[in-house]
């Protein structure tokens, strides 16, 4: 029993580094000033490009999961993450930072490709929902911790904020020294058969729908992370450091929400996603019209619940809607959607900029997209209940 708990703890600890690429988003205003020879999209790309690296590795897992074994992937990924992520602390050349951020994403992707599907394959029912909720909480805790530390380090210059990525080192050491479990996707018969099985249409369509929802929620989270500091400074009621603290608040709320996900899902069932989207729409709208830190805090708290319940829900949805033989590939497909959303967030910001020069225009764009998603889910729920 103790060994099983230790294995669960170490597996959950891997999620500490999965979404930390955006923990340094508050450095953007200083980076904009530093890289004056580059346009805004190019500088924003430094924050979002890790998602492209993650997406590349997730796609590799989608097609070559039989050959990408868990332990080598995780060790290599954590080592690459730690080394590449800290490059900006001693080298500020744009091409070097861009490559290092891409390698950070590749390292995260090597871990990401195996850290989620193992829970879906090993656990069932309420225990699976509970562990996925815990995983989301650990993920949010890592993001919150690094965003908070980065915000304080930011006072010494944007380069200093990247020291936060040394957190990958203790996670790597813990995995190498203490994890000896056999509970991996490599040992799962279903996972082993998956590369030889052909997609069943219902499973594929379910995975695509969940990937689209993952795209939406992650792109929205990334837009908020990238625009919050600029929004505060542009409207004159906050600073980049305060924006970093707010991102930490948002992720701290996500920790609490993740811990309670299993209970909330049991009470609300399939209405949870719809209600979560409506809360997110309210949060985005409030953040757009806000001119005070108090209202902005309420807004990010509302969105934190949305982000957590949708993010955890899409991966639980894979386990619910997809046969075991397809879970590994379906999880990779959903992760692809999530990371594509993070990578394209900077272009969604640019798209919103074509319509309005307001720094918060991208927030309204994401609110509209979330409204469309909520309406679609309501229609699907109505049709399903009518056919039942």
C-alpha-based Rg, rounded: 20 Å
Helix count, per DSSP?
16
Question: How many separate domains?
Answer: 1
Shape: globular
What distance lies between the first and last C-alpha atoms, to the nearest angstrom?
42 Å
Kindly name the structural category.
mainly alpha
Beta content: under 5%
Q: Biggest sheet, in brief?
A: none
CATH class: Mainly Alpha
Secondary-structure arrangement, i.e. CATH architecture = Up-down Bundle
DSSP summary, beta strand count: 0
One letter per element, helices H and strands E, the order comes to: HHHHHHHHHHHHHHHH
pLDDT average, as an integer? 83
CATH topology: Growth Hormone, Chain: A
Helix content: over 70%
Low-confidence parts lasting 5 or more residues at pLDDT below 50? 182-195
The CATH homologous superfamily:
MFS general substrate transporter like domains
Question: What can you tell me about this protein's structure?
Answer:
About 4% of the residues have low confidence. The chain starts with a helix and ends with a helix. It is globular. It has 16 helices and no strands. The protein is mainly alpha-helical and 388 residues long. Helix 3 packs antiparallel against helix 15 and helix 7 packs antiparallel against helix 11.
